[in-house]
């Protein structure tokens, strides 16, 4: 005996060999049918005055109307019979088609319509004949090619987005650097004007660049604190003196030292660079003036 809401009920019996007992069955003097509310089967059962079992959520009619119910379910019966026969042919043929993991549901739906039967244990389709096998293989190739194309397009979109972000970052860095260069140039002009006003010697108008190479291991802060301070007066190897207007500090690693940043007055090993810009002073009138 089966138990259901409402108490003990008679045993269920199949209504038809091609219908699963979960869909339609005979129970005592009634035939119960489970179907979707908006389905054609439900509408046809309503048309034949089938009753609704509220507690169980099922349509039912008396067994005397079995022939009519089978007529209503005839399409479903034929589809399931055809499906069973197709599965039997596919399994019996020994023909198989391997498929990649992760293909979309639409592919599997189309494969089923072609007569292929899915073997979940082997992760492959069994097909009834060589024609179906050829068609399914072609479908696999098409779906895989479409997936690979989508993946390429996605990678391209991600690459374009990354380049756009990098470009935006580079443009921002260029703007920041240009602003910094402009500020440094303005500060250099201001220091030069201040040197003209405060120095006991006039500025000759000459500008000299001095490149200092430091091989010691330094932090960035230590490197920036090293060397001649701005606005100080320094003596060059040729005895000329000048006011330090600007000072740039940067580090060169081993790769760049022996490659793109190589220059005659620097080694091909890692080092710090300090580049000074000096405004040369005219010290002819007071040669004894000492650098600060």
Category by helix and strand content: alpha+beta
Write down the overall mean pLDDT.
Answer: 83
- Overall 3D form: rod-shaped
Largest sheet: 5 strands, antiparallel
What order do the strands of the largest sheet run in, or round the barrel if closed? 3-4-5-7-6
The percentage helix is 40-55%
* Alpha carbon gap, first and last residue: 111 Å
Number of domains: 3
Total count of strands: 14
Sketch the topology as an H/E string, one letter per element: EEEEEHEEHHEHEEHEHEEHE
Which stretches of 5+ consecutive residues score pLDDT under 50?
A: 1-7
The amount of beta strand, in percent, is: 25-35%
Rg computed from alpha carbons, rounded to a whole number of angstroms: 45 Å
**Count of helical stretches:** 7
Region (Disordered): 147-171
Explain the overall architecture.
- Residues 147-171 are annotated as: Disordered.
- There is one protein chain.
- This protein is an alpha+beta fold.
- Helices cover 42% and strands 25% of the residues.
- The chain is built from 7 helices and 14 strands.
- A 5-stranded antiparallel β-sheet has the order 3-4-5-7-6, covered by helices on one side. A 4-stranded antiparallel β-sheet has the order 11-14-13-12.
- A hairpin with a 4-residue loop joins β6 (51-53) and β7 (58-62).
Top keywords for this entry?
alpha+beta, four-stranded antiparallel sheet, 7 helices, 292 residues, 42% helix, disordered N terminus
What is the secondary structure topology, with strand pairs?
Layout lengths: L1 E3 L2 E3 L2 E3 L9 E4 L2 E4 L6 H8 L3 E3 L4 E5 L3 H7 L1 H20 L1 E4 L6 H9 L3 E3 L4 E4 L2 H69 L4 E12 L5 H6 L7 E3 L5 E12 L1 H4 L13 E11 L11
Antiparallel strand pairs: 1-2, 3-4, 4-5, 5-7, 6-7, 8-10, 9-10, 11-14, 12-13, 13-14
């Amino acid at each position: 005996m089966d138990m259901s809401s409402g108490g003990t009920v008679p045993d269920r019996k199949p209504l038809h060999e091609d219908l699963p007992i979960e869909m339609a069955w005979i129970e005592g003097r009634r035939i119960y049918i489970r179907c979707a509310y908006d389905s054609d089967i439900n509408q046809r059962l309503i048309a034949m005055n089938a009753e609704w079992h509220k507690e169980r959520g099922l349509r039912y009619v008396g067994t005397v109307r079995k022939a009519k119910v089978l007529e209503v379910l005839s399409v479903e019966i034929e589809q399931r019979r055809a499906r069973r026969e197709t599965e039997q042919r596919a399994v019996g043929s020994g023909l198989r088609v391997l498929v990649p993991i992760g293909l979309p549901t639409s592919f599997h739906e189309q494969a089923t319509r072609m007569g292929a039967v899915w073997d979940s244990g082997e992760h492959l389709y069994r097909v009834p004949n060589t024609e179906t096998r050829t068609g399914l293989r072609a479908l696999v190739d098409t779906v895989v090619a479409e997936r690979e194309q989508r993946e390429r397009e996605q990678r391209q979109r991600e690459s374009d987005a990354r380049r756009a972000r990098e470009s935006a970052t580079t443009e921002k860095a260029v703007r920041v650097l240009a602003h910094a260069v402009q500020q440094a140039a303005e500060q250099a002009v201001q220091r030069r004007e201040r040197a003209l006003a405060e120095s006991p010697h006039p500025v000759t108008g000459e500008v000299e660049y001095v490149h200092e190479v430091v091989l010691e291991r330094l932090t960035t802060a230590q490197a920036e604190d090293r060397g001649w301070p701005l606005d100080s007066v320094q003596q060059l190897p040729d005895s000329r003196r000048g006011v330090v207007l600007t000072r740039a500090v940067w580090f060169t690693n081993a790769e760049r030292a022996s490659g793109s940043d190589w220059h005659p007055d620097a080694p091909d090993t890692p080092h710090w660079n300090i580049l000074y810009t000096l405004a040369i002073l005219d010290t002819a009138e007071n040669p004894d003036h000492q650098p600060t």
